[in-house]
Amino acid sequence: MTFAQQKPLNIVAVSGGLNHPSKTESLVQAIIDELAQATPINVHFIKFSEIGSLLGGAIYRNQLPQRVQDDLAAVEAADALIVGTPVYRASFTGLFKHFFDFVEQTALVDVPVLLAASGGSDRHALVLEHQLRPLFSFFQAQTLPIGVYATDRDFNKDYRVESEQLQDRITLAIARALPVLEWAPAKGQRAEAVKTKTQDANQNLGINKQIEQAEVLPSAAVPNLDAAESRLHQNKTQSIKTQVA
Ligand SMILES: Cc1cc2nc3c(=O)[nH]c(=O)nc-3n(C[C@H](O)[C@H](O)[C@H](O)COP(=O)(O)O)c2cc1C
């Protein structure tokens, strides 16, 4: 069976752009369109131009409107993510971070994530590497090798991607993503596999409570963590013994 014949991948796209229209939203849409040409996908597109104002007042996840809770559940069950944010003060926006603060902390282990950002200045292109990549490394996600950064100059007056250079970068990012998506562990079946786990973890719990609860850690995706740690401690004990001898 070739990649193209497989079940569609469940892609969740997140645009942190608060405005409407939004360059970030157009950028993320252009990335979705490129991926859709290469392989069958189902897309759930979360737009902060729609949900941004619903996010700010919530401290715990169960205080969020149901719509945003459903978006979070979609992120946690995705086969792969495409995430984009405008650059605000040399980083992702506060609300973009606030949204991902609610994501269960083991839900994105090994999930491929394509990183994108739009900014006013070329000089902030490394926001992808210095801000977005570390955030998704925290989640132990598989950040894809090529991220896409756009500036105001890459869009026409209708906020559509205009520049050839940006389109080429998007094409390259998807070309480099495809082998990872092809071999991603879930291949279209992740949603079913994580549904129960995510539902259990999310039931009436805010993220702070989840972190406090031992059952959320360690991740099921790292089954040998305990074994690895005990080997590490054993080696340490041995080397102390050797020093003493
Ligand atoms: C509060 C604020 C802070 C910003 N800070 C930066 C910045 O530090 N670096 C940068 O390159 N652009 C910055 N910009 C410009 C936006 O990142 C840029 O216009 C972006 O494309 C807007 O995306 P949107 O159309 O999706 O809202 C800032 C814009 C705002 C409103």
UniProtKB/TrEMBL annotation:
Swiss-Prot/TrEMBL keywords: Flavoprotein, FMN, Oxidoreductase
The UniProt record lists the keyword Flavoprotein: yes
InterPro entries given in the database record: Flavoprotein-like_sf, FMN_Rdtase-like_dom, FMN_Rdtase_MsuE-like, NAD(P)H-dep_FMN_reductase
Transmembrane segments: none
Keyword Iron listed: no
Protein name: FMN reductase
Ranges of residues in domain NADPH-dependent FMN reductase-like: 10-153
Lineage of source species: Bacteria, Pseudomonadati, Pseudomonadota, Gammaproteobacteria, Moraxellales
Pfam families the record matches: FMN_red (PF03358)
Family, similarity comment: Belongs to the SsuE family.
Any GO MF annotation of the entry: oxidoreductase activity
